[in-house]
């Protein structure tokens, strides 16, 4: 397996603070009362959105489509930008300082794809399922919980994207 972009950059700069971009997708079920969420391989509690870090040369839209396929086996296309969130972590689980700029997109299944193709990759994603949004599902980190709340309140009322600044 080819080493990913972050691992290549970390090999060059060590633990020094770096900025990375990520993209995630929000796929609603047909009733629009549940979102496809993943049980992550790197967290024992809560859920995450399918998505991941951009590779060099990726657009955010390409990244979310690629990550969705890798993690869920579903082919999706981007519908719209939901918002942008930033999160500063002075020491992540690998001991690195990192700021992540995350772009969230609403996605839909590509014509001819259905959820019978749904399958977790078994590595980054241990399980994937449509999780009801009421009551609110527990997300794997507070930043993801805040993002979920914005998706469910702000994006359902408006087509305008939001910006979540660090700590908010």
From TrEMBL:
Return the similarity comment.
Belongs to the Nudix hydrolase family.
| Annotated ranges, domain Nudix hydrolase | 18-153
Q: What InterPro entries does the database record attribute to this sequence?
A: NUDIX_hydrolase-like_dom_sf, NUDIX_hydrolase_dom
* Xref: SUPFAM superfamilies: Nudix
Matches recorded under Gene3D superfamilies: Nucleoside Triphosphate Pyrophosphohydrolase
Which protein are we looking at? NUDIX family (YjhB)
Name the domain of life: Bacteria
Q: Which Pfam families match?
A: NUDIX
């Amino acid at each position: 397996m080819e080493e990913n972009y972050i691992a290549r950059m970390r090999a060059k700069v060590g633990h020094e603070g770096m900025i990375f971009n990520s993209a995630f997708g929000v796929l609603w079920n047909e009733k629009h009362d549940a979102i496809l969420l993943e049980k992550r391989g790197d967290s024992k509690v809560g859920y995450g959105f399918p998505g991941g870090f951009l590779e060099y040369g990726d657009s955010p839209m390409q990244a979310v489509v690629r990550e969705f396929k890798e993690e869920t086996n579903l082919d999706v296309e981007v519908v719209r930008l939901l918002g942008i969130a930033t999160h500063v972590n002075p020491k992540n689980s690998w001991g690195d300082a990192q700021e992540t700029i995350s772009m969230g997109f609403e996605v839909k299944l590509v014509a001819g794809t259905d959820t019978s193709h749904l399958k977790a990759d078994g590595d980054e994603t241990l399980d994937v399922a449509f999780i009801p949004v009421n009551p609110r599902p527990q997300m794997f980190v507070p930043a993801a919980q805040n993002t979920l709340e914005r998706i469910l309140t702000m994006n359902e009322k408006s087509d305008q994207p939001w910006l979540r600044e660090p700590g908010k």
